[in-house]
Amino acid sequence: MRIQLALLAGLIIGCTQPQSSEKAQTRPNIILIVTDDHAKNAVSAYGSKLIRTPNIDRIGREGIRFDNAFVTNSLCGPARAVIQTGIYSHLNGFRDNNDSFDNTQLTFPKILKEAGYFTAVVGKWHLVTEPKGFDYWDILIDQGTYYNPDFVKMGDTIRREGYATDLITDLAIQTLSTKPEDKPFCLLLHQKAPHRNFMPNVKHLGVFDSVTMPIPINLFDDYSTRSAAAREQDLEIRKMFLAYDLKLKIPDGMSDPGTGGFKGADGEKFFEGDYNRFTKEQRMLWDNYYKPISDAFYKQNLKGRPLEEWMYQRYIKDYLACVLSVDENIGRLFAYLEDKKLMENTIIIYTSDQGFFLGEHGWYDKRFMYEESLGIPLLMKYPGKISAGQVNKNMVLNLDITPTILEAAQLPVPEHYQGKSMLGLGSDVEPGWRKSIYYHYYEFPYGVHAVKKHYGIRTERYKLIHFYNDIDEWELYDLKNDPYEMKNIYTDQSKASLRDSLTNALNDLRIFYKDTIKLETANKNR
Ligand code: SGN
Ligand code: CA
């Protein structure tokens, strides 16, 4: 059921003729900022114990912060395809990162463009096929690189010298400086950071060195009570590549002991590509910082938990330095918007393509339906329409972003959209809002990190997950008593009726969202 533009164009254009001049512009400008893998636990508006992010926080302070925002499928391409189309992965066809986006579908930028908006996307795209529905697009190739990245600008490849987060922000500002005066704009600002392999800007190297970051209480999770999916993944920090992830030199004659989610791969080879992109000066600053760290590491000869803690500290500090650059660049964008008097009539939305593990369960990466990967930061400001300082607790989804944007642009929301506009939400819990969310992850057995296929339901209090494909196992969590999801109570006899009612509710959600494809469930004796 892919909806083509032509089908709905008549309806939309019939409703809203492009205005000849937007001098007395009533329709707001739209900026959607999507970072890559930015965990809520690394945003101070969400009470981060790790970092201050004043510019991101400002969006929520001057508007609304959603405390229970989730994705429908915790992976980059799929999450972006959901935002583009307003429908679940099983309907838009982009289930995992090996898929290719069907760009003939009706995406929200196409709708906005038809309705007279100037539309642009800069930064990470990751949907394989060319962006459609944009007056301007200037995107990274695939994941892109942190240093001196190649961009595809309206079809032409160009290498730009500098640091990705700065360059993407430069592109955003340039795009706004050269856009037509007589149209409202919609800009998608898609940062690459803080995606793996977490390479900080050289100017930020060492910014967190004087601090020891707090360790998550479940860094040493042993996965007892859980399914084989939790035990058999390849997401553990202790298995990170020393070279690629932690930027250590590998001594001659030794090979990188990490698997990094790619069993049998060589972490040193992985890092070569990044290292070779540096300019002479960048390389010098990089080596000056990491070489002494590397030397000290081998001298210490750590083992067991101290080694794992050391790896966690290295990982988290590089990750946070990437976040710092994102936040500073948002400050730079805001300064531009203020200078051009664009802050007042612009709706700004900040989110991440999915959540991320920052050591919880011993992990990095995402994919699982567990809280840190499922949840996303979501902050939105819209002066005059959303009063400052709202905090909303309803369960919203990335699926809701598209209808929200269309409603803000005073356009009808296509009937086949599966989310709801969040514009009416404030600090009070909205009683008519959804009481449960549906999730489905697919990238297995091919792909990285070995997270098994699963789908599930999350209510305000409980979460039920079914892992399928090469196993057939269930997990049930009580998020009130067990917020870190350490105790699977699926087989607990006293929870039988809860389990049954959640199973029924999950089946109902599958029907409601039209996810009725047969699961390749295979029972295996373990
Ligand atoms: C790359 C990363 C993985 C990551 C996926 C998906 N490895 O393959 O760690 O899970 O992207 O990320 S890397 O060696 O290339 O860094 S996503 O955000 O694009 O979905
Ligand atoms: Ca991502």
Report on the architecture of this protein.
By secondary structure, the protein is α/β, with parallel strands linked by helices. Among the domains are: 29-198 and 320-434, Alkaline Phosphatase, subunit A; 439-512, Arylsulfatase, C-terminal domain (2-Layer Sandwich). The protein has 13 helices and 16 strands. The strands form three sheets. Strands 7-6-5-4-8-1-9-10-2-11 form a ten-stranded mixed beta sheet, sandwiched between helices. Strands 13-14-15-16 form a four-stranded antiparallel beta sheet, covered by helices on one side. The chain has a two-stranded parallel sheet with strand order 3-12. It starts with a helix and ends in a 14-residue tail after the last helix. Residues 5-23 and 522-526 have low confidence and may be disordered. Bound molecules: 2-deoxy-6-O-sulfo-2-(sulfoamino)-alpha-D-glucopyranose (SGN) and calcium ion. 2-deoxy-6-O-sulfo-2-(sulfoamino)-alpha-D-glucopyranose binds next to loops. 2-deoxy-6-O-sulfo-2-(sulfoamino)-alpha-D-glucopyranose (SGN) binds next to loops.
